[in-house]
User: Fold this.
Amino acid sequence: AYRALSSILAEILFATLTTTSSRNMSTSSSIAELLGSPQVVVGFGATTLVLLATTFFYLKNNEGSSDGGAASTSSALEKVEELDSEKYPGGYLTIYYGSQTGTAQMFAKQIASESESRGFHTRVVDLQDVVDNEDQRSISDIATLDASHNNIDVVNDDDGSLIRATLAHPHYREGNAMEGRSRAIFLVATYGEGEPTDNAQQFVEMMKSKSGIRDIYKLEDSPGLISVDSCVRMGVEVDEDGEEEKKNDSGSSLSNDMVLDRSFLRDLDFAVFGLGNKQYEHYNNMSRFMDASLAKCGASRIAPLGLGDDDDDLEGDFENWKDNVLWPALTEKFVKGGAADALAAARKDNDVLELPECPYEVEYLKDGASKKIDLDMIQTSSKHYVQAMDCPIVASRELRDPSDPGSTVHMEIDISKHMSSLKYQTADNLGILPKNDSALVELVAKSLGFDLNQLFHLFPSAEESATKHTLPFPTPCTVRDCLERYCDLSGSPRRSDLKQLAPYARDEMDRKALLRMSSKEGKSEYKEKIVEAHVGIGDIVTRLCPSIVCPLEHFIMVCPRLQPRYYTISSSSTVHPKTIHITYALLESEKKNGGKFTGLCSGHLSSLSKGDMVRVFVRDSTFRLPKQPERPIIMIGPGTGIAPMRAILQERSYERKSIGDAQGPNILYFGCKNRTSDYIYRDELEAFSDEGTITELHLAFSREQAEKVYVQHLLAQRGAETWKLIDDGKASIFVCGAVKMGADVDHTLQDIIVQHGGMSREKAKAYLGKLQTAGRFVQELWS
Assistant:
């Protein structure tokens, strides 16, 4: 009732506040003081006064409420703090991140750590928090006043007003709270095949709606694009997707038009840096979308879009953009006069290596006394630590012939005790949380002086305590659990991690070595001695730089998080509802020093036996069977890429036995080195073929002839048949495997469309893009 009343009176309140120059007056002010003069009182009329009195009575009686929200619009507009203009001549800067593994978050913190020396006061915000709107009541009040100020009638979650109020929050604007501009940096990772990270999904959906970019893979204007103003002029009621069926003045349908709101972020200045990998087709797709959509919504670009390539030197790309593009642009635009020179001189004078501030505090617990941490405090990128469940392994068997030196394993995991949280659909993904080798854990604990059996709580520091999503993993836990489950001790650290470790080295040689390899000039040495040598944090603190002394909370801050590994589920949820099957290859390679490198997760899984527990969680995949079972499916899955195809074939076999001849054809392309050594699931595939579930089975054995043959070669040989299945039969195409194979298959499909569909190369790519948007062309690839 209050929000509705506020919406009605917002414009009256705003006008009155402007007239009396009392916009920041406290809610305890009397109505007479607010209105300023008897003439104004008479002008409003008795009814309005009653409504105003009711509003202020409500506000006054809700001062100091316990829900943490602001009690009124005026209190919502009170400044967080008065900035010292000499210390922060650049003003406020907010850094938003969309991160799946924590790298974008780490980059955000790097910018924040440098911001004070550059003259800016920063805050770091998870993109999930933008849509969650932590301080709902305060944000709603600001959104209401913002809507009134801009002559907008409705404020609700669907129209993006609350998101706008968060991005353009008056607390963090330059100058006047309602007229000033906000500044934001977006650090955005691209996940999978050009998709947003989990914590950015909802934000991306809102930006799609507001920018009119329906297809994230096509950033140019759509022919049907119309603006919000045009909709208003034509009397179109626009839904949240901009797709409601309405007629314009000429009577033609607007159902496919998209709505562009050019004023949505009109008072936001922004810059975007993207984290991607060039091995994937849609390289840095999310950062490109973010940059384009923000601009389309009226925001002003501070600096050119920066793109980082994790297949080459992601960190170097980021440093180059940060140091040579972002900071110069921000300084030129916002740090005026001699302030920039003074800050630059101060940075040179203060080039001293100091222990970094730690955002965490550790409380060691005695006698097992503990209190669970609020799960809202856990970082969004670490939510899998909370979601995962311990489940027993019920079967494990080798799939390759003993003559083959490699290993591919079929494993079955019992989820019957966690059916609600681990319920899955056919060919979903299973996230597995690996554990570090216990011997390495003990060496690290001994080197750093940690008691592995000590139970502890991790809390945010006093500076971070008011912010949600600040803790990296749930506690209480033992130090052993912390090092074993949450700290990446064996993966190669980034150069920035080495720089953070350096202050903790007591020996000058160790400290210099870490700083040298963390520098731009030391990239080659870092690549040779860290990345190519498979050196992890555990090796550094125990062997290479043993002088490092680091308190537990600081080690948690410096050490990267141990990330889950994802496997496409190789079982049908209909046929096997209480177990999940996975298919994994053991990753092993020789080190330069003669030792053996073993992949962390595959090595962990290979050490487990029937009855042992593994910590897992389920994540949606993009593989979904067509709703019309009579439609064909083309499956391309060499090697362990067969996993989702096995699940789909189990499902199709079940459907076939239930609905008979109504099912469409199932065509499978499988490849491996040799039919006698690594033709995995051979008996099952032949059985599916014999019973008629597999209509066509095409096998590529790359080493059985002089010239190597791969699945894409077999696909090309059946170009005419494939085109007929796709275009006439509306077939779905599912591809799983290595990125290189996926790119080759994509190119082959384009060739088929060009040759047999009579299209140009550009139109063939667009045709595949439409199939992808419709869920008929799905690729799950790994590098």
Remarks:
- Confidence is low (pLDDT under 50) at residues 1-79, 135-140, 152-157, 221-257.
- The longest strand covers residues 182-191.
- The radius of gyration is 29 Å.
